[in-house]
Amino acid sequence: MAVHTDHIEIETEGEVQIFDITEDVERIVGNSGIKEGIALIFVPGSTGAITTIEYEPGLLKDLPEALERLFPRDIVYEHHKRWHDGNGHSHVRASFLKPDLCVPVDSGTLTLGTWQQIVFVELDNKPRRRRIVVKVVGE
Prior knowledge:
The protein is an alpha+beta fold. Helices cover 29% and strands 37% of the residues. It has a single domain (2-138), classed as Jelly Rolls, CATH 2.60.120.460.
């Protein structure tokens, strides 16, 4: 079994920025030489998330609006009361979206639906420098 690890670097502005990282992950899978296996995409930290979406203008507007309805910025969060950093909503949102995604690799390519892209979602309330880990495992 082979293992290949690489990274994707992203500079963010904060507060629900969505980045399509599909091409970056595809490039890493291609460079890995692995034909059959899995690609794990993971963001270290507790205020970022990895998920899939149809990366189109409507959903790029709908996802942040849905997150605001589900986890509003302007309610009281115990995290904010303790740390005074104003990002309690960021942590809760990230917990629900999750920091990782696992995608099958078949014949050296990601197994994604026609309209399915891999995205990183910045949820923190301030700019961040993110280093996303991509680990490809297989043969």
